[in-house]
Design goal:
Length: 111
């Protein structure tokens, strides 16, 4: 997986570059492309069945969207998980002294 650390001085640009790095990383593509191929083929079979049955030409914009949407959903899922993990790791690095104060259930969960 590509390790990209966002720059906190330019949050918009770094978030975009971080997101693109995650979406187009080898890990994400290995997960998202097969998902898009399987789900997209299934959706095309459902959506284009009347065209195939009556030997009409396919609607190519629908074909493309039927593959693109599952790819984007799968990639978004991986990206949102990765962003959540990044936020958690930044919060842990930011407040190491606050671990003992307040809620003690965190301490118990570690043991």
């Amino acid at each position: 997986m590509t390790e990209i650390q966002p720059d906190r001085d330019a949050p918009q640009k770094s978030l975009l570059s971080f997101s693109l790095g995650v979406v187009f990383s080898t890990y994400t593509l290995r997960k998202s492309v097969p998902t898009a191929l399987v789900v997209g083929t299934f959706l095309n079979g459902i959506n284009q069945f009347p065209h195939l049955l009556h030997h009409k030409p396919l609607v190519w914009s629908k074909v493309v969207l039927n593959y693109l949407v599952p790819f984007l959903v799968s990639s978004w899922s991986i990206l949102s998980t990765r962003l959540s993990k990044e936020e958690q790791s930044l919060a842990q690095k930011k407040d190491p002294c606050d671990e003992g104060a307040g809620d003690t259930s965190k301490k118990r969960a570690k043991y």
